[in-house]
Amino acid sequence: MKRSTFFRTTALGALGLGMQPSFAAAPFFQGTSTAQWMANLRAALFVKHRTAAKFSPNNFSRQVALKNAFLEQHNFKTENIPFCFAGIQENFGFYPVLQRSAATGTTEMLLPVFYRDSTGAWKHQKTLNGFQLEALCRAANALSANQVPLYKLLLPVSTGTDAPNKFHTLEGSVTITSMLKAGKVQTRCMVTGSKGILFEETFVSSHGLS
Tens of pLDDT along 132-144? Predict the structure, then answer.
């Protein structure tokens, strides 16, 4: 992994994207498993695909437009695909945004996540990167038999006091820490529920950084 990539992603985190500072953007090579992780997470969360929110659609569109305007300043673009909504009442909404580099042939993906509260208002909670997406997919696979719906365990609900590498969920919290060691990214993921730790794993990320 080039040190320039590491410092560039650190800088993106400092811009307030709501991501883990050390890996604010997650570059991946075309053809890697990142798209599959996205598909796996959608399947695990039993998402609904819609071109607009079923509930409070105008408010959702405004919040998305605000987030996209910010991301576009950093050359991230939305794809012409439906939004993903999770939860019985579809309280969570998310979608991928991409930044393609013709010079390096790589693509970076981020996943802005929104939540609709009891008043019907949508609000951006956190923007996940590819390292976090990979970790959440591994957690989702391990917790597939859990009685608590996975969207309550894995999707972020901001409390305003979350640490950069940790976010709260409806039923607990998720901590994902990525460290650069000897040219490889080592990621530790811990999912906590109401009764304690449900999942904990440290692994070498299969992301290919440029």
Answer: 999 999 999 999 9
